[in-house]
Amino acid sequence: MAKSATITMDDLLAGQANSAHLVSGETVNGAVFSIKKHEVLVDLGPLGVGLVPRREVGFGKTLKVGDEVTASIIDTELDNGYSLLSLRKAAKERGWEEVEEKQKSEEVIDITPYDANRGGLLVEYEGVRGFLPVSQLSAEHYPRVGSSDKDEILQRLNALTGQVLKVRILDADRKANKLIFSEKEAIKDGLAERFESLKVNDSVKGVVTGVVDFGIFVNVDGIEGLVHISEISWERVSNPSDYVKIGQTIDAKIISIDKDRLSLSIKQLTKDPWLDEVEKFEKGAKVEGTVTRITPFGAFVQISPAVEALVHISELGTGSDVDPEEVFTLNDRKEFIVIEIDKENRKISLSLTDKKTTKK
Fold first, then answer.
1. Residue 4 within a domain
2. Which of 171, 227, 236, 239 could form a disulfide bond with 216, CB atoms 3.0-4.6 angstroms apart?
3. What is the pTM of this model?
4. Do the domain assignments include residue 135?
């Protein structure tokens, strides 16, 4: 118990005669009576005076005179007669007991990351240092960026420091001083209920969390969704970032439900313009088009804003050595003949009006 406000240093030092009762590694209770730049002095009652170096106070902990504290004994007697104490170690010991209890009960707890690196978030929980890996972040917080953009990953993680996150303890090993948290585990029960309420063809709203070469990642009420590049627009998409920005709210259609992710489509919420434009063409008709792609098996030609057709290599001539790159140049406009229209599979086949044509 703390002494009265009239306590003197002589009174405190007199208590050192009982310091033999102190044992390294044990914990003691006392009251703060002096706070200096590099140390804190604690009244241990009949056990004397304890000195706590500032580094042993603990991360983010502030003290004032009169505060009751629990400390671990590091050294029973320093040269000045004080006992060397650590508040941080005592908190850590108590913290490990708390950690082990929370892990056993699988309870969802609140943490506040204090720093970040490219691998994840640094956390201190009840005096125990731990880690929340990037792989264990929820869809809402996962930094979906290109794998080579490490600076942006770190920037996204830094934005989470100081925020309260709900997590479960994924792994705890006191001997190895290892404590791993998971945000994904904390929300999985709620996600299971949300998944059950969703079905294919549902329209949903979501927030764009990442834009990559192959598509768009979307957070749908805590569930991760992916709009593949082929499902962004009915027109051919080269760069998904031309269509959405991170943080933007979008509407999408569920086209499949995987174990822990939704496959979404933006374009299927609108009518396919191909179906209207294809009505303009008839088999045997002559059309003009622009060459958009050249492949070893032929060339693709844009014959209207929404309709791209194929000129197969077999339609370029009768020789076995016909080379599409010798016939076509990108962005060239040529005249073609429609030889087949397959509405069910959204395909139109063309033939050159002049099969002897070669590029100059």
1. no
2. 227
3. 0.61
4. yes
